[in-house]
What we know:
Oligomer: single chain
CATH architecture of the domain at 12-31 and 38-254: 2-Layer Sandwich
GO cellular component, one term: cytoplasm
Helix content: 25-40%
Pfam family, one: AMP-binding
Number of helices: 22
CATH superfamily of the domain at 12-31 and 38-254: Nonribosomal peptide synthetase, condensation domain
Radius of gyration: 29 Å
CATH topology of the domain at 12-31 and 38-254: Chloramphenicol Acetyltransferase
Domain AMP-dependent synthetase/ligase: 286-625
Strand content: 15-25%
Protein name: AMP-dependent synthetase/ligase domain-containing protein
GO molecular function: ligase activity; phosphopantetheine binding
Amino acid sequence: MSPLPIMAEVSKAQLDHFPPCLFPASNPTSTVSDYGASTGRGCVELVLEERWSAIEPSVKNLGVPLPTVLKAAWVLTLRCFVPVDIICFGSSDQLFVSNGPNHGAGLEETRSNSDLMLYILRLDGRETIQDFLQRLKNGQKSRVVAAPPGYDIWIVEEQPSRHHCNTVIYYHECENEHGKLQSKLRNNSAAELTLSQVDLILTVTRKSNGQVFADVEFWPYHTSEDMAVGVLRTFQHIFCQLVRAPYNLRLQDVDVCSDHDRRVIQELTGVVSQAENHCVHDIILKQCRLYPDRIAVCSWDGNLTYGELDDLSSRLAYHLVELGVKPETFVLSCFKKSTWAIVARLAILRAGGAYISVNAGNPPSYLGSIICHTNSQVLVSESEFADRFRDLVPAFIEVTLEWLRGLPAEDKSPVCETIRADNACLVIFTSGSTGQPKGIIQTHQSYATAIRDYVRNLKLDSATRFLQFDDYAFDISNLEFMVPLFIGGCCCVPGPMKTVQDLANNMNSLKANVAFLTPTVAIKLVPADVPCLKILCVGGEPLSRDLLTKWASSTTKLINQYGMGEVAICCAYNDQIHSTSGGNLGRPASGAIWVVDASSPEKLIPIGAVGEFLIEGPHLSRRYLDNTFHHRTEAAFLDKAPQWMAEMHPERCSARLYRSGDLGRLYHNGTFDYIGRKDTILKMDGCRIDAVEVEYQARKALSPEDSIVVDILGIIDGREDPVLTAFLYLHDHPASTAPAIEKEPFLRNVTNDVSVAEKVAYIKASIGQALPDYMIPTIFLLITWMPRTASNKTDRKKIRWVGQKYYLAEQEKRRNWPYYVQRQHLLPV
């Protein structure tokens, strides 16, 4: 690959159009917000290379000076920790030389603010090491900056600041073997100097004795010492590869995980839960036999003891067997909040089947697709939905107490003797990208394992009264139903709710002491209104500081919970939440969580670097449903662990792993931060929304020349409610332009444009005919043109960045968007 061209001089005003390249804070519990408030600085150091002579020939063969190799290593190091493709950092082309015993004295005085310049580079993983080094070497200085097509490196005579970047690299040659550069970060007057505007300073020193030495200075309130050491080790590891690896090695193939980090990761992933080889219903039935008189279900429409739950579910289970239900048979279940939804689920499991909970409000085409893909012959429901479902399946069962008591009671137990722990337990449906819903098959083993560990992690017991709040069609409802019944507790089913006060009243009347809510709902609850609540689990979205502060003063324990439909119950939990750590997921709940390069699971990344979560453990689902999604199963589930597993845990080479698509980072204390999605699966109000699926349905109301992109705006450090937003490009609209005319697309509100408003109404109708209401965008913005990537794909990152910038600008002008519409619903659809 030939070197990319160098930039020409254009308008300096474009500098602010580059996304900032900020090394992330790794002390999330710190409350220091003033960067000049702390005077204590930290420093870690190591020997980069013992003998310069050992690498000098290799550096010369690269055809670039040593400082260029060091800068290249720093660029690749930053790329690990900052998830952007344009890297920005401060550096100096001036060579600092010191001698004499007072190596720091005098050198500080010779260094002025003009020594530093801003380096801005666009990375291409396909580029070779040699081409990248030459491109960096040939970078030309410019007092001005922009981003015309084809230019990919900038060196700007502009002082680094946190507006652009927060790292600096220096190179220093010392004639005294004890010499080392003293940076301005250590100067007591740092607040008055440029270097007080950065958080990390890397200094590389080549001593007269041939030793190449490196140190990192940092503000401890921003960067932990463990992280500083890890950064330095990563830099050393990458530098050694640039010097010693084949020159035609592509940047994306450079190994970035140091031996130091591999040892730490190996220790953190050393324990994975043992699989629970029992069926879900067998564990529940054990509680039924031990405590037959204890209340199992406390509902607005009636209570059931464990003995009654055993009897009624047994009667229904035998009836289901007579209808042909057996292991690997899928049975539909559709109920409003009700005691009988719990009975039906348990009965389906006892009959050997797997239940699929559906929402009666979903479009007929959506429900029909589920029935088609599962070959479901039986649907268990209530009288209200009889007319809707009776003609969709051969057997429609209307469950009532009188009807159940009229069924024969059988003494034989178990109902199904052939069911095993590896048989299907339930199927969760999410939207697909081709107009068809996507089913995830969960086994008894996965759920039994996950619930066992969940109970242990949260220290739950038979006094647990778990609120069954979520819609039955969503996966959290399985947790709310199974967890209390596993331990002899009580499943509390609330009545109809329209307001947050209704929710609080239900909690109090049911005496619910454990609940799972999305942050959107939890922030609206007043802790004093629910004194019965002892544990509040929240998840599905980042936790805002307002939410954390609100519940911190209450007696309720707040737990952040992270998971997805492909993994039973949850992947990680955080029961030590601080007011500044809303994005911290805590530690793994059942298995191990690995962080790998988002483009390749074969590549481990450093601790603290941003990558994709790989989930390992017996709580993984089996696969996606039927051959329609066979390619999705192959892409998402790794049946053979990557090579690094053999190096770290050879006994787990056969382990299955799930590629979550979620981006985050691992910390040295074993906790994880959630950053976002790498694909188009969005999360809002705890619900997963496939943006591609929404766009697929919306395009039915558009012409072939039009385009639409769906994303979520408004999540700014968790402080604003997320808003599902559609960016709409209309080919024949007067505002539409060609990309060459503007540096970036322009956004405008469609509220006052009658022709566009009519189009938006058609789009909403098209989406609503096929998808649930929560998948219909709330906000529509007209975009003048659709940004494209180098491979001519829609540049979603660019669109999101432009959208967030527009959002912030509107917020600055007036507290609320002029077109902002507050979501009226309190509870998930």
